[in-house]
Amino acid sequence: MEVSMISSGVEKRRFSRVFFSIKDEVLGLFTHSDSEKEMITANIVNLSEGGLHFVLGRNKNKKFIGGDRLVFSEIKAKKTLEFVADIEVEIKWVLDDQYLKHVGFGCEFVNIPDAKRKEIVQLMNRLFQVGKE
Question: Higher-confidence residue: 28 or 82?
Answer without folding.
Answer: 28
